[in-house]
Amino acid sequence: MNGNPVIEAKHLDLTFQTNDGPVQALRDVNLQIHKGDFVSFIGPSGCGKTTFLRCIAALETPTGGKLTVNGMSPDEARRARAYGYVFQAAGLYPWRTIAGNIKLPLEIMGFPKSEQDARVEKVLDLVELSGFGKKFPWQLSGGMQQRASIARALAFDADILLMDEPFGALDEIVRDHLNEEVLKLWARTGKTIGFVTHSIPEAVYLSTKIVVMSPRPGRITDVIESPLPKERPLDIRDSPEFLEIAHRVRDGLRAGHAYD
Questions:
Q1: How open is the CA angle 172-41-12, to the nearest 5 degrees?
Q2: What band does 58 get if pLDDT is binned at 50, 70 and 90?
Q3: Per-residue pLDDT tens digits for 219-236
Q4: What pLDDT, in 10s, does the model give residues 148-169?
Q5: How far apart, in Å, are the Cα atoms of 252 and each of 16, 193, 219, 236, 242?
Q6: Which strands make up the sheet holding 7-18, listed edge to edge?
Q7: Where are the domains of the chain?
Q8: Spatial contact of 58 and 227, defined as CB atoms under 8 Å apart
Q9: Is 123:158 a contact under the CB 8 Å cutoff?
Q10: Which of 11, 43, 85, 124 lies at a CB distance of 3.0 to 4.6 Å from 47, suitable for a disulfide?
C-alpha cells in the first residue's frame, strides 16, 4: 500500500517487571497499518493483543524497539487526539444520560457547548442511536450501551479507532448485528481501525488485514491480507474464500502454540 503507515511498530518489545520476575508480553513485533485499514488482532489469552493496542494508545510503554502513530510517539499522538479507544466494557457513567456520556471527552477537551451538541447528534446517528440521547445507560441493552461507547470514542472525530474486544461479552446474534454495524460505520467514515478479538469468524468478517499472534511472549506469527470485498453481507461467511482465510488463521494460531 502507498503512503506512510499510520501506525508502525519496529522490533517492538515490552517486558513487565513483576514480583515473580520479568514477564515478556511482546517480542520483536513488526507491523505497518495504513490509512483506512481495518486490522484485527487475534490470538490466545495473554498473547499481547490488548497490550499492543494499549501501547498504540500510550497506556503502556514499550521497553524496546520503536512505535509511531501518525509519525509521532504514542504519547504525542494521544495529546494530538489521534485516536478514540473503545474498551471491552462500555464503561458508561450510570448517572449521566447517553448524550452526557458521549459529551464527556468533548467537555474535557473544551469544545464549545453548541459544537458538543452537534457532535453528539452526529455520532448518535452514526451508531444508529438517534433519539436515545436522553436515556440512561441502564435503560439500554448491552449491545446499545456498547454502541454508545463507540459513539463516545467517535465524538471528537479522530482518524484512528482502537477497539479492544468490544463485543466479547455479547450474545452471538447481537454480535453479528454489531459486526455489520461496525463495517457500515467504517465504510461511512473511512477511519483506520485496530480491533482485538478472540473470534476467528469476527476477525475474518471485519478485517482487511488479520494479525495472528502467538502465546506469551506475544509475537506475530502471520499477517493475512484479506481478499474479501469491502461490501460483506453476513452470509459471505459461508463462502469458500471466507472459509479458506479462517482456516489459515486457525493454522496460524496452532503454529503459534507449537513455538518454543
A1: 160
A2: very high
A3: 999 999 999 998 899 899
A4: 999 998 888 889 999 999 888 7
A5: 26, 22, 11, 22, 15
A6: 21-33, 7-18, 64-69
A7: 7-82+159-257, 93-157
A8: no
A9: no
A10: 43
Pick the CATH number of 7-82+159-257 from 3.40.50.300, 3.30.450.20, 3.80.30.20, 3.40.50.880: 3.40.50.300
With cell 467504517, the residue in question is: 186
Q: All 3 cell numbers of residue 145?
A: 450501551
User: Read out DSSP for 2-27?
Assistant: -S--SEEEEEEEEEEEETTEEEEEEE
pLDDT tens string 182-231? 999 899 889 999 999 999 999 999 999 999 998 878 899 999 999 999 88
User: Cis peptide leading into 215, omega within 30 of 0?
Assistant: no
